Amino acid sequence: xxxxxxxxxxxxxxxxxxxxxxxxxxxxxxxxxxxxxxxxxxxxxxxxxxxxxxxxxxxxxxxxxxxxxxxxxxxxxxxxxxxxxxxxxxxxxxxxxxxxxxxxxxxxxxxxxxxxxxxxxxxxxxxxxxxxxxxxxx
Length: 138
Fold this sequence. Notes:
By secondary structure, the chain is mainly beta. It has one domain (16-129): B-lactam Antibiotic, Isopenicillin N Synthase, Chain (Jelly Rolls, Sandwich), CATH 2.60.120. Helices cover 12% and strands 34% of the residues. The protein has a four-stranded antiparallel beta sheet, with no helix packed on it. The chain has a four-stranded antiparallel beta sheet with strand order 2-7-4-5, with no helix packed on it. The radius of gyration is 17 Å and the shape is elongated. Residues 1-8 have low confidence and may be disordered.
């Protein structure tokens, strides 16, 4: 697997209750129904680490392990990231018998300028200080 990703700190989405970094395992014969993220301040990177190797049948209309974002479908390729605006409706599936594993990482949407990032971060810090949202994790 070849994977080189260089991200500047400004691209990382820290300090927001909407920023996450986690592994996602989707077991065989399962799916995550269509859903959308809470806002479009972020982009979510999906980096496939383990993708079942089963070949699709000729009559299969969609990849056996894949993602749909709005009206676009993609199949997973180990080490090839897909970055999406998760405020669009999206769903994932794994029609094989093996697990699929991704690493997910949230990034600032590139249309959010530095001044906006600072104000958004300050807003969440203020809400955290008032006890309206949870404590910032370190």
